[in-house]
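Worked problem 6 (solution included).
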Amino acid sequence: MSTTPVPCALEEISRLVRRASDDCHLHVYRAGTPTPQNPPNGLASIRRQGAGGGIGVTGGLTLVPNATAFQIPAFRTENVVVRNGHQVQHYAVVQRTTSSDVNIQSFYPAPGDHLRTTQRIGNVTYARDSSV
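Solution. The predicted structure is:
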């Protein structure tokens, strides 16, 4: 089995997650669910949140927070001592812990006709198509 990352369609990723969720030997952790942005202004909304960069190439936007948004889980141990005659053995038992996950916002343009915003590429400015 290869460990090389392979790009997958969203439907394939959804299928893999459903299959993993049904396996009692696996723990599935979700970071969030992409939210569709409906036409006609969905694409413009995504561009505003992403400071207008590269939406024509990516087709969506995922806002990944910096490290301060993540909560460090508490790491607690319990010292266990076992005596056997003159011999003393010490064991550190790690206690269960939890950590809350950060909310990761992700958006994609929903199917439909989206209004295009004014965009400048090089020395050319492409105006918003007001006929849509």
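Discussion: Residues 10-126 form one domain.
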